[in-house]
Amino acid sequence: xxxxxxxxxxxxxxxxxxxxxxxxxxxxxxxxxxxxxxxxxxxxxxxxxxxxxxxxxxxxxxxxxxxxxxxxxxxxxxxxxxxxxxxxxxxxxxxxxxxxxxxxxxxxxxxxxxxxxxxxxxxxxxxxxxxxxxxxxxxxxxxxxxxxxxxxxxxxxxxxxxxxxxxxxxxxxxxxxxxxxxxxxxxxxxxxxxxxxxxxxxxxxxxxxxxxxxxxxxxxxxxxxxxxxxxxxxxxxxxxxxxxxxxxxxxxxxxxxxxxxxxxxxxxxxxxxxxxxxxxxxxxxxxxxxxxxxxxxxxxxxxxxxxxxxxxxxxxxxxxxxxxxxxxxxxxxxxxxxxxxxxxxxxxxxxxxxxxxxxxxxxxxxxxxxxxxxxxxxxxxxxxxxxxxxxxxxxxxxxxxxxxxxxxxxxxxxx
Length: 415
Ligand code: SAH
Ligand code: TMP
Ligand code: ZN
Description:
Helix content: 25-40%
Bound molecules: S-adenosyl-L-homocysteine, thymidine-5'-phosphate, zinc ion
Low-confidence stretches: 1-9
Strand content: 15-25%
Largest sheet: 7 strands, mixed
Number of helices: 13
């Protein structure tokens, strides 16, 4: 099915504050990024228009068109957070940090929004602390349960949060990583948090940081699931709108540049200096301003030209190129750049649910990680560049055998 969801309005209304949003990039028609297809599936693929803009009122960077959430998050949603050893360690360390700080109170209770396969909550469960994951994707939720994690297979929103409050009491911590940015209805999240959070509790949100995306021209961080790209200014504004304060931030070296926002009820906690410092930095550099975002757009177009030129040149020289990591991000790269099996015949990936499937839109087959060495290609296009350290260490034999990695963030280059 080709659904034309492009409206005629040039300036869509902000999903947070209603003010006009100025689009700064349009990637054109894109498929659902995690909709890996069975090769026998002959039904037409769903497409939507992927365009991003910045709100002139609240600075929130957001997409112009929303993919219905049930098309993205369902029983077969294939992404599993625990596929990365680095991310497992990252969330395990954060769980221990929570246990030592916010959860060091009598009978603590922690809720996670988008708990996926329990990558964070499994540590909390092992510590015997009361917890609940709220996770609509059934397969991911079952994977978490297999690790002893308690999960409610639902979307987190005002009504589900209210039910949790009635049944389990207030939450000392509500945590959410790489999920709040996926939810166009941010009002439903904040109203849900308002219903569930203890008076002195904290809502901790980890997500990709707009500043890092712009700095590294990480255009592939823009795909259906990443509906919002957060900055300190936009998150502070949306928090205030719903009766909360942004009280702290921490920048984190995961997923190519992440920021952890700590949000509390208005007036409940002092605001750490780091918030105002980074806010001042964002304003000084004009992070959400036209000139900055237009520069990002120019860099994105340049990356496409250079990457496609490189892949065509290698093909014409008879070199083999294979993709590494069938990330959701790669859907933007392949579909925006027009990269199909003629340039990248297959992508190797460690996620069992993606094996034997075709990547959305591009139709590039996905093969298990073992296929990478069977035989090694001349070049590997690193779609999972956010896991570069882990993958290059794991695949050190590839480089030792003369193989070269191709990267396109922060610019197109051969490693
Ligand atoms: N927290 C994990 C998973 C991120 S993937 C990590 O950081 O790796 C995003 C997850 O959010 C998916 O598992 C998806 O099913 C879930 N999700 C999407 N919308 C949601 C909602 N409204 N409430 C709760 N979870 C949601
Ligand atoms: P992500 O960038 O959204 O976390 O997705 C990473 C993808 O890369 C996911 O499909 C799993 C895959 N992957 C590998 O194939 N091998 C690896 O070593 C790692 C860390 C990830
Ligand atoms: Zn706005």
